[in-house]
Amino acid sequence: MAIRHFLQFTDFTADEHRWVFERAAAIKRKFKGYEKYHPLADRTLAMIFEKASTRTRVSFEAGMYQLGGSVVHLTTGDSQLGRAEPIEDSAKVISRMVDLVMIRTFGQDKIERFAAHSRVPVINGLTNEFHPCQILADIFTYIEHRGSIAGKVVAWVGDGNNMANTWLQAAELLGFTVHVSTPSGYEVDQAVAGLRSNDSYKVFRDPMEACRGADLVTTDVWTSMGFEAENEERRAAFADWRVDADMMKVAKPDALFMHCLPAHRGEEVEAEVIDGPQSVVWDEAENRMHVQKALMEFLLLGRVKD
Ligand code: CP
Ligand code: NVA
Fold first, then answer.
1. Which stretches in the chain have pLDDT values below 50?
2. What are the tens digits of pLDDT across the range 237-254?
3. pTM, full prediction
4. How would DSSP label each residue in 65-118?
5. 306 C-alpha to center of ligand 1: Å?
6. Cis-peptide into 262, omega within 30 deg
7. Residue 200 near residue 166 (C-beta atoms within 8 A)
8. Which domains, and CATH codes, for the chain?
9. Active-site residues: which are they?
């Protein structure tokens, strides 16, 4: 059987995503009920970080141990990756010793080159272009709170970044709409996002209009990792793209607020929104672990029934 990777959201079909969401719910129930579940006993996950992380590291590491497996943690600074060993050679070596690899890096091309030379499944733990594990967690969180996301409207306020691209891929695949509002110069690029058409998103100059009638309002940092040199010019450009109570007021009365975290209160979101009653950011963060456990189970064991 061909190895499956999860390098972008569209690497899975809509039906496979539905399966992963169902398994995430089942695996979460077991965890909450203190039920031991060790389907990945004797399996090893290598986690490679070329950028900082809190949630991704803890959720994959704790999740893998909970499934009975173990982890190896590598960073650019403490491995030969930082001393220019070719990514292809690293992939061939690492994938002979472990069962699964998660990578957080810069360009999507790098993770694709790794996957092309890997004997085992590779998971994207964030690249400049995509953050598919986060969108798995976000949609699972939406489903938990409100049911199916099909037909709903998600307002994206802020940078046309890795999170925005992945929301757009998910919308096209799962049948919902994204209202995108970015400052000019920071728009989403349909080709980079890898979309078939522009049918599943609408662009708004005014972030308030993007939020009007939305079922979910979401944003992210103004400056993503790797773009720190642009910090000052981004602060000026994004000043009107701060999610505030007025934006939440024009969304649906039961609209949720999400943020992948880490957040900067007073920059991309006001404290009263992220710490307010519509915010589900802590559920989102916790759900990273539950969906990724389902993802690892699916990649290594296929459709498990229990
Ligand atoms: N949301 C997210 O990926 O967080 P970390 O950068 O802490 O992993
Ligand atoms: N867009 C952000 C997400 C961090 C989890 C970044 O890439 O830094």
1. none
2. 999 999 999 999 999 999
3. 0.98
4. HHTT-EEEEEESTTSGGGGT--HHHHHHHHTTT-SEEEEE-S-HHHHHHHHHT-
5. 31
6. yes
7. no
8. 9-131+288-301 (3.40.50.1370), 135-284 (3.40.50.1370)
9. 104, 131, 134, 220, 260, 288
